[in-house]
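Progress against Task 2.4 (sequence-to-structure conversion) is shown through the following example record, which the project officer requested during the mid-term review.
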Amino acid sequence: MSSVPTPASAHQQRSPYGRVRSTARRPGGSGGPLVVAAKTFLSPSLVTLDLREPNGRPLPRWTAGSHVNLVLAHGLVRPYSLCGRTDERGFWRILVRRHGRSRGASDHIHDSLRTGDRIEHLGVQPGLTLAGARRYRFLAGGAGIAPLIPLARLAASAGVPWSMTLFGHDARQVAGWQELADLAPALTVARKDEAIATGLQDMQSGTAVYACGPEPFVTAVDHALAGRPGARLFRESFTGPAAGGPSRAVELVLARSKLSFSVPAGTSLNEGLRAMGVEVPVACGAGFCGACAVKVLEGAPDHRDRLLSAEERAAGNVILTCVSRSRTPELLLDL
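Structure tokens generated for the chain above:
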């Protein structure tokens, strides 16, 4: 068995079988180009984009809570929740906050993207779904309102009582957004000093709580619900994949290319594969887009992505090699 070199020395070694290209199916279906039909600033740090198909054809249907993976400047891939109406086929609407620690994606959207520009997408993925409940409480931190808007509409159409509280320094600007006009009667804006727990004080039994926003916000909601019997929290945050515990060395066996080698702890599976001359596409590098998905033939993946569904994780027959690891000492991959 040969040990995989670190990324810095990867260019010095090549597999005797030449370069191997991944043929794994990318989760999320087909993508393609989109055109920026409209760009509107709700505040200095929040902007909405309406994206349409270049030739005016209807866009694919989507379900409440879904997100679209966009390919931005320098090949960055980022997921953005769709916040328009699910029956609108003419355009997709997203809401983007400028992040102080942006790696370039939100800055590009805020500063460089213009109406009429083209942008690629890698398909739509399901996210939060509306669970059965007697009532719903939606808590949104800033741009975290995006996936909650269609979920609230779904609850309203089903005749189930619901309410939504907006948190954040620009919550009032968001509350005044025309997109929310039909939801306004059930919306409240939290005071700047209002604790998250305050918004949960009158929560009744049988309520499903949905929280979306920055990770500290969602964690605070989780803590506020601790100890409440029967409380159910459905959450989505803006952070990358969960750490999933320490990384250990794993032996990769590639069925088609007849390679077997070790990927040391601290080196991603993608880095290990590339070091041995095996090309696996990578886009977001954070477990969002599915570009690096590879079929697993044997072994148990340690899923650390934010893309695969619970059913796909349980099946264990695909792994996102940019972030995920292995729960078994060896993985047999279809490469």
